[in-house]
Amino acid sequence: MSTPQWPVAGEREYELIAQVLSGQMWGGFHPLVAQLERDFAAFQHCRFGISAFNGTITLEMALEALGIGPGDEVIVPAISFVSTATAVSRRGAIPVFVDIEFDTFNVDPQRIREAITPKTKAIIPVHFGGPMADMDSIIAIAAEFGLPLLEDAAHSHGSEWNGARAGSIGAVSSFSFQNGKVMTAGEGGMLLTNDAALATRLRALQNQGRKEGEGFFHHYTLGSNYRMTALQAAVLVAQLERLPAQNALRDRNARLIKESLADVPGLHFQVIPAAAAVHTNYLLLGWVDEDRDGFHQRLTAQGVPCTPFYPHTLQNNPLYLDRTNCRAMACPNAEGHIHDAFWLPHRALLGDEEESMRVASAIRAASAVPTATVHSNL
Ligand SMILES: Cc1ncc(COP(=O)(O)O)c(C=O)c1O
Fold first, then answer.
1. Do 195 and 292 share a structural domain?
2. Ligand 1 atom nearest residue 178's Cα
3. Residue 4 domain-assigned (yes or no)
């Protein structure tokens, strides 16, 4: 038995790719692209979907459409993939790094509040690993200060907060379909919003400043070409059809694994608030009280994929280390998890019950910290 591979394609991907290749339109104007935008928006409880070629450019587009520019501050969690921060920097704006909650790994709403200044122009919560951030508190703070929320939903295709799907709460949200994500075309991105005016701005940005229904060579605003290809959309339409079953399978297996490991001392899993119970399980995320690097080595030696978390918080990346282009609040929880956290990729949750029990036994064995060898001078 071995950990399932990812990504996976079935007959449906081949069928839809063949459909594209047999026609004369392989680019972003193929009807499958519009179908994906409609279907994915509906799946996430949103009105409008605007696709793009990856989930980094979508963050940059969202910030541009929100009017973020030089000198503006945007609040981001200290733990995320680098794009969450660089999208802000690429607008000439200043990422302001705030701490996460120790147990959920998601941004701490109280730390957001403390970081707000007159320069703050937006907040980017990330639904880290799949479970959504505390959207009740974050939306309340955003409303109090009149700030737009850009949900970085790159990990949360199908995740919910009290029944509302990721992307449907903030002003705009950004999804990634990069190779490791729970639905993928190798690369790809999507912006979702319920705001018709914002959707129009995003579409114009994505499609050379055109207006829907107007001439191909009429450009009304400064846009670019961020369009997804029909080949990407063909794969993603098929991936979306399979996603609910895969999300359910991952959820069952994650529960089995965590329940069977509840008695292991010093091993902890990401705490999932009741409101966020429905989620992708994009990462099986946790931390150990002792010897994280040894845990990682012992686990991977048993053939179970594991990453020893990020090597540093976002603000401690070389890019931001001298603090000339960012602002960093105190982030003790994020700093702590750099040394004790780990994750398993979601493919480790796509096997059958037997495979899940194998993963659980491997985690149990890896959690046992070897007692130090006693050296004698004799
Ligand atoms: C939280 C988060 N935001 C943004 C991105 C960027 O997406 P992409 O790789 O599609 O550019 C990723 C990962 O890839 C991510 O994990």
1. no
2. 10
3. no
